């Protein structure tokens, strides 16, 4: 007999039908009621066994975490909380989980504890809900771009360039670190390395996406990116996934329009397709909020927060306007920020970003036209000669969720900028070629996928929205 899924059975229950389900035991009550979960949905299927008819040795093996195959008849349930249940006729324990050893017992576990059990935590309601929402978001991303005339393109993972010019790269090398070949002046001889030069894991697929946009029009990449930044925060990972659309003939305004429409679309998709998981996550978040001091609690419930993003335009503000607002604000009792904004040109800290979104504008904010000095080399210089056509989208509870810009399409201006910032022209000869041959206005942005998932699921720590998080001093799994 073919296996059904709990989701399919509960969505469209056919009473008196014989079905077979395989899954994992969540709980076993009164030697009679098995709550069986197969990961297809938050809900468990209640399976009722006749313990008097069951082999006592088999009965002992029905423990939380064990894998079972059950076969039986679907009947109306008298119990509360479910409409149907499975009257079990046949039961097979596929894999045991010893109660003294299996760590995910039916009780509340802390997020810290579950991080140590990253291989098993997917068997909890919270991680099941988060990962189902994440999967739906990923589908919505591809759907949005495909139906809006974009082509999906895969940027390389190993590259010879530093797309952000921030030097936060993981090196890729096949040389023996203890005994590398040396050049005559004593440095490591990378010409002997696998690729004959220094290479690294990509920090962003942008530069390659630019090349493809300048041939296919509108492209997007959705893949892993890597940053060796030593940020031990709840919003940083060393390996995260980024969605990067790049569009020929788009200026900064068109770029901002696209980013806003795109984010609203994917969040709306989740609201329309994942309500059961969202309601569970909302309740989880509300319980977590209760443990915080009043002043730190979020004023909005999760689903309300999502609607807040889908139902109104994002506020667009220039960097210069934002600095004025921040200088004149009294963010807390001490009436000052930990990092006060002293002068135009200062980079914004996350406390500033969150103040603008959560306290001042109280809606998602797109900040644009940043000082050239605090942004990457490839951004289009404005006519004022000191700001660039950059945009960051700031979200409540998250801060920066998107970073993007109109790109510098003028060869001479770009070369000059690279010289000023010490970006190697020889390494990026191909990138400069794009300005030599058929250059045109173009734009794009990068959205940190895990930050989007954090926002939509209400999870406080980015480590809890990726299966096996990579963070400093941590790659256990
Ligand atoms: O602002 P970033 O660095 O922009 C770029 O990489 C551009 N090349 C993108 C482009 O224009 N195609 O990164 C983009 C986004 C951030 O806004 C943030 O959401 C996410 O990537 N991000 C991270 N997410 C998790 N962990 C980290 N360490 C992240 N660093 C950036
Ligand atoms: Mg950024």
Q: What do you see in this structure?
A:
It is an enzyme of class 6 (ligase). GO terms for molecular function: asparagine-tRNA ligase activity. Its EC number is 6.1.1.22. It catalyses: tRNA(Asn) + L-asparagine + ATP = L-asparaginyl-tRNA(Asn) + AMP + diphosphate + H(+). The protein is of the alpha+beta class and 477 residues long. The protein has two domains: 3-106, Beta Barrel (OB fold (Dihydrolipoamide Acetyltransferase, E2P)), CATH 2.40.50; 123-152 and 259-464, BirA Bifunctional Protein, domain 2, CATH 3.30.930.10. Helices cover 31% and strands 23% of the residues. The protein has 13 helices and 17 strands. It has helices at 6-11, 56-60, 111-116, 125-147, 206-216, 252-273, 275-290, 302-310, 319-327, 350-361, 411-421, 429-436, 449-457; strands at residues 3-4, 18-29, 33-37, 45-48, 67-76, 84-95, 151-152, 158-159, 171-172, 199-201, 218-226, 239-248, 315-318, 365-371, 387-395, 399-406, 442-448. The strands form three sheets. The chain has an eight-stranded mixed β-sheet with strand order 7-11-12-17-16-15-14-13, with helices on both faces. Helix 4 (125-147) packs across helix 7, helix 4 (125-147) packs across helix 13 and helix 6 (252-273) packs antiparallel against helix 8 (302-310). It binds 4-amino-1,4-dioxobutan-2-aminium adenosine-5'-monophosphate and magnesium ion (MG).
